[in-house]
Every structure is written in structure tokens, then in C-alpha cells.
């Protein structure tokens, strides 16, 4: 039997019976090597190691560690106070605080799951105590948390840049700024309408100017972390990988000497959590790489590219088809393995059709990230249900208007390339 048929069929079977995505891809690769008898089983180990044997990939564990250090330094409370002082007094104020806080935190964590499990869980409790429906608070948190992989620094952008030589990590980091802000604005619009309909009141009045200045000054070091990363890369002081190390030291200095809430005693636990999270990410990347290697050797990307090019699609029609395909694909596959498998197939076709590589990268990343809040496999839904203690059915019901808002953002992102490309061009990254 053809190796690619065995690979795809076995992967679907393993996913259908509930095997975690990374191990489903690894087991499908092993099954293909055993039953197809075309390649030695040693390929699985070799390609898994090769998939993570990359200097740019070193940025992933360091950015994860920087986020953990910032969280250990009471960053969440600082950002909550900073965001709340501007929008907390308005109708639906805690909803806006949720959106603004998670957007700022995304500029540090680079992970949707970290946003939902960390500050997201605190915000859900605050909204619940203030009279918001707990299921609505959970839906708002899950919908906003997907900004995590869009706003720089982003782990998934690092992985995408390794799969497509036409884009760089720096250009993707900058390209994600406007789409991330657009997503946050869309979530605020939904919150405005829901809060008006349900009469979710604000929390008092706008704080005095002195309090605003004091809170903003305290939050400034945390807010400046993405600025330091992007500014240093723009100035040529360091590469994205080196920027991740700078971020670790910056986070350590902020937590220990600026906020003075990070203790040396807490550092071993932070290192352990970071190592565990980084290891899980690298396992996904490694096993996805072995899966993608067989697809490449079997000529699946090349055949699919030739088929798509042969259809003589216009660039816009191609993007419409890609959006539909990625939305369906993202329902069942997590973003990281999705990028590992699909970027090498679709990106070359996009280039041949004249689609800007950075624009296409943002479409792929946003589509696959949306899969985290679409049932039945959406990882963010399960994390949010766990931290909020809200049933999945109630969460999905409240999620509907947010999904419509994300759909509008996706249409704008697809048909207005400047949303993705204007800043990278302006800052000289393209």
C-alpha cells in the first residue's frame, strides 16, 4: 500500500480514538514505516530529532521562561489594574478589562493557553463576582485568548518561519500587531452589545489622574517587554533567538528588582514549569516533523501544489478555498502541528499565485488558531471550561457572537493584505 495513504489513514484513526495530536502523528509515522516497508524505522527518531535541532527554535523555551518569570513577578495583577483603570468604569467594564488585559499579556506569553489559564481564570472569577454570567465570562476569555499566538512574541510564528523560507520571524512578529489589535477591537464590540443587552454595569467612576499616572508608571516595565524585543530586532542589536534570551533577563530584572515580588526561592518551580511546557511544545514539533518528512518524501506537497496551480485559480479564489480548508482542518488539529504539516504544502502555491508570503502566513496562523475555540477538539475550550467550571454546552452557546466577530476579522485579514503587510514594510522587515 502507498506510504502516504497509510500515513494519513492511520493518523485519522488515531485522532478519532482520542490519541493526543502529537502522539497520533508520531504513531502514524511509525505505522507507515512498519507497514509500508519503504523506509527504516530509524527515520522516526532521526527526523524527530532533526525537527527540533534548530537554532531559531531555541527562542521557544526562552520566551516561555520569560512569560513564566513575568507571571511569577505579579505581572497579572499589575496589568489588570492598568487595563481596568481606563475601561472598568464603563458599561461592561470588566469585559473590556478582560480583553485589554489579555491583549497586553499576549505580548509576553505568546500562548493562548497560558493567557486563558493565567490571567483569564482570574478575570472570569472577577466577572462572576460582579454579576456577569460565568459562561459569558468564560466565552469572552477563550475568544480573546487566541490573540496570544497573534501578538508578538508568538511561538507559532517562530515555527511557521522555520517551515517557509520566504518569511522571517521578525517580519511575522511585526505583522501580527495590527491583526491582534483588530481581534481585540472585535471582542470589545461584541462585549459592548452583550453588556448593553444584559445591563452589565461598570465598576464606579474613572480614577483620579494621579492614580492613573501611578498605575501606568508601575505597569510600564511589563508593557515595554514587546517593545524591547521588536525594537532590538529592528535596530539590529539581536536576532529573534537572542531576543528571547534578552526577554528572560528583562523579565527576571522586572520581577526581582522592579516589582520585587519574584523571590529566588520561586525560581526553581518557574524553571520546572517552563521546562515542562517547552518539552511538550518540542515533542509536538519533533513528531510533526517526522510526519511531514514522509509527506514530503512521498511527494504529497508537490502533487497538491501542482494540482492547485493547475486549477488556474485567481489569488483571491485560492485564499477563499484555503480559508475554508484551514477552518475545517483546524477543528481537528492543533495549530503547531497544523503549521508543521500544511505550511510547506500551501505556502509555495501562494507564492506562485502572487500572494504576499507574510500576508498568507497571517491567514494560516489565524485560521489554525481559531480551531482552538471551535468544538469538538478546541484546546482553549477545554482549558477555559476547566478553570471556569462552566459546562462545555453553556460555553459554546455564549461563544456564537464571538465566532461571528472572528469571521469578520478573518474576511478583513484575507481581503485587506495591508493589515498584515503595512507595518513590516514601514519598519523595514520586508
Structure overview:
- The chain is mainly alpha-helical and 430 residues long.
- It is 77% helix and 0% strand.
- It has 22 helices and no strands.
- The radius of gyration is 22 Å and the shape is globular.
How would the blueprint of this fold be written?
Elements (H helix, E strand, L loop, with lengths): L2 H14 L4 H16 L5 H11 L6 H14 L2 H13 L5 H17 L2 H6 L1 H11 L4 H12 L9 H9 L5 H7 L1 H22 L10 H27 L4 H19 L8 H31 L2 H11 L4 H18 L2 H18 L4 H14 L8 H10 L3 H24 L2 H9 L4
Q: What amount of the residues lies in strands?
A: under 5%
Low-confidence runs (pLDDT<50, min 5 residues)? none
Mean pLDDT: 83
- DSSP E strands, number: 0
Please name the defining characteristics of this protein.
430 residues, mainly alpha, 22 helices
Quick take:
With 430 residues, this protein is mainly α.
Amino acid at each position: 500500500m502507498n506510504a502516504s495513504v497509510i500515513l494519513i489513514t492511520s493518523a485519522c484513526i488515531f485522532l478519532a480514538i482520542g490519541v493526543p495530536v502529537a502522539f497520533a502523528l508520531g504513531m502514524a509515522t511509525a505505522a507507515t514505516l512498519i507497514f509500508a516497508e519503504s523506509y527504516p524505522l530509524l527515520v522516526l527518531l532521526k527526523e524527530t530529532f532533526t525537527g527540533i535541532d534548530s537554532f531559531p527554535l531555541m527562542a521557544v523555551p526562552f520566551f516561555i521562561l520569560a512569560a513564566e518569570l513575568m507571571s511569577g513577578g505579579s505581572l497579572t495583577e499589575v496589568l489588570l489594574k492598568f487595563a481596568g483603570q481606563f475601561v472598568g468604569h464603563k458599561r461592561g467594564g470588566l469585559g473590556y478589562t478582560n480583553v485589554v488585559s489579555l491583549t497586553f499579556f499576549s505580548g509576553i506569553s505568546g500562548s493562548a493557553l497560558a493567557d486563558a489559564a493565567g490571567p483569564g481564570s482570574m478575570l472570569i472569577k472577577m466577572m462572576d463576582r460582579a454579576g456577569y454570567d460565568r459562561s459569558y465570562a468564560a466565552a469572552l476569555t477563550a475568544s480573546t485568548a487566541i490573540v496570544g499566538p497573534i501578538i508578538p512574541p508568538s511561538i507559532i510564528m517562530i515555527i511557521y518561519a522555520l517551515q517557509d523560507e520566504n518569511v522571517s520571524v521578525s517580519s511575522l512578529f511585526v505583522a501580527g500587531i495590527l491583526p491582534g489589535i483588530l481581534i481585540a477591537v472585535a471582542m470589545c464590540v461584541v462585549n459592548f452589545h452583550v453588556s448593553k443587552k444584559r445591563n452589565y454595569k461598570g465598576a464606579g467612576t474613572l480614577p483620579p489622574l494621579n492614580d492613573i499616572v501611578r498605575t501606568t508608571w508601575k505597569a510600564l516595565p511589563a508593557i515595554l517587554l514587546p517593545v524591547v524585543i521588536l525594537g532590538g530586532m529592528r535596530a539590529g542589536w539581536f536576532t529573534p533567538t537572542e531576543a528571547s534570551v534578552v526577554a528572560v533577563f528583562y523579565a527576571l530584572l522586572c520581577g526581582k528588582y522592579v516589582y520585587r515580588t519574584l523571590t529566588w526561592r520561586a525560581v526553581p518551580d518557574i524553571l520546572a514549569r517552563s521546562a515542562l511546557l517547552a518539552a511538550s511544545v518540542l515533542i509536538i514539533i519533533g513528531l510533526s516533523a517526522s510526519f511531514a518528512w514522509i509527506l514530503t518524501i512521498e511527494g504529497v506537497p508537490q502533487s497538491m501544489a501542482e494540482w492547485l496551480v493547475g486549477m488556474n485559480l485567481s489569488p483571491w479564489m485560492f485564499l477563499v478555498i484555503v480559508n475554508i480548508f484551514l477552518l475545517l482542518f483546524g477543528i481537528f488539529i492543533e495549530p503547531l502541528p497544523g503549521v508543521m504539516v500544511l505550511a510547506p504544502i500551501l505556502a509555495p502555491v501562494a507564492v506562485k499565485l502572487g500572494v504576499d508570503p507574510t500576508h498568507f502566513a497571517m491567514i494560516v496562523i489565524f485560521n489554525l488558531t481559531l480551531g482552538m475555540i471551535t468544538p469538538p477538539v478546541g484546546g482553549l475550550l477545554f482549558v477555559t471550561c476547566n478553570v471556569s467550571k462552566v459546562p462545555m454546552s453553556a460555553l459554546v452557546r455564549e461563544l456564537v457572537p464571538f465566532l461571528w466577530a472572528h469571521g469578520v476579522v478573518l474576511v478583513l485579514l484575507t481581503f485587506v493584505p495591508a493589515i498584515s503587510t503595512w507595518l513590516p514594510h514601514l519598519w523595514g522587515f520586508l
